[in-house]
Amino acid sequence: MNRINKKLQEDKKLLSIYFSAGYPTLNDTVSIIQNLEKSGVDMIEIGLPFSDPLADGPTIQASSTQALKNGMTTEILFNQLKDIRKTVSIPLIIMGYFNPILQYGVEAFCKTCKEIGIDGLIIPDLPIDVYNEQYKSTFETYGLINVFLITPQTSVERINFIDSISNGFIYMVSSASVTGSSSGFGETQTSYFKRIAGMNLKNPQIVGFGISNHETFSQATQYAKGAIIGSAFITFLSNHGIKDISKFTQAILNNI
């Protein structure tokens, strides 16, 4: 069973953390992953930096730009992660845009992911229909879960279609804005969370965008299986470096 599916079966609310590979410095990637696991994080989304990140807010864009300046490439990331499963057991997901994956070669990319122990991919700009018709079988051959995003504007029909071709979790974007632009959830977002929970989808939902502290983590996970934090963690890395990661995660999980 895929590590993501195993983790989703656990009787707890899940904390997933996103960061840009190669930030703050090129060779911090593995240390950040190891420290996140030790600090109680359930899943990690490793951002593959790209020069035109459409859905990313200014914080993640800045970290991605710096990672590219630091020299991060797909090949370097794979090389950094080649022994990651010797020290890390939680699910690892690569989140990135389709262009670098296409340049690398979709099958070659998926094959390398399997070899190094990546469990899934999040590719926001890969159209669902294109994935379903052209790439689904390749992902399945290499045991990779492809995670799709929904927003408050996604139609019921589309959500049900996404649910039907998914085999992990659905990334529930909390609002139609870019990452890092929200500071708490109002009635509109709460009603959206309730509405999706009431659809009784076969795949659990994990909320992303707008989660930055214990309060927003608790709000997001009231109606969902877990929550994803990106911009707030990258801001923490920018201010504190990689040594005190446990302080960040404990504040989220235990309101310290």
Please give a structural write-up.
This protein is of the alpha/beta class. It has one domain (14-254): Alpha-Beta Barrel (TIM Barrel), CATH 3.20.20.70. It is built from twelve helices and nine strands. It has helices at 3-8, 29-38, 58-70, 74-81, 98-104, 106-116, 128-141, 156-165, 187-197, 214-221, 231-240, 245-254, and strands at residues 14-20, 43-47, 92-95, 120-122, 145-147, 149-150, 170-173, 205-208, 226-229. Strands 5-4-3-2-1-9-8-7-6 form a nine-stranded parallel sheet. Residues 177-182 have low confidence and may be disordered.
The whole-number mean of residue pLDDT values reads: 92
> Which CATH top level class fits?
Alpha Beta
Q: How many alpha or pi helices?
A: 12
| Cα-to-Cα separation, first versus last residue | 34 Å
Q: What Rg, in angstroms, do the CA atoms define? A: 17 Å
How many β-strand stretches? 9
- The CATH homologous superfamily is named Aldolase class I
Strands side by side in the biggest sheet: 5-4-3-2-1-9-8-7-6
SSE topology string: HEHEHHEHHEHEEHEHEHEHH
Write the layout of secondary structure elements.
Blueprint: H1 3-8, E1 14-20, H2 29-38, E2 43-47, H3 58-70, H4 74-81, E3 92-95, H5 98-104, H6 106-116, E4 120-122, H7 128-141, E5 145-147, E6 149-150, H8 156-165, E7 170-173, H9 187-197, E8 205-208, H10 214-221, E9 226-229, H11 231-240, H12 245-254
Parallel strand pairs: 1-2, 1-9, 2-3, 3-4, 4-5, 6-7, 7-8, 8-9
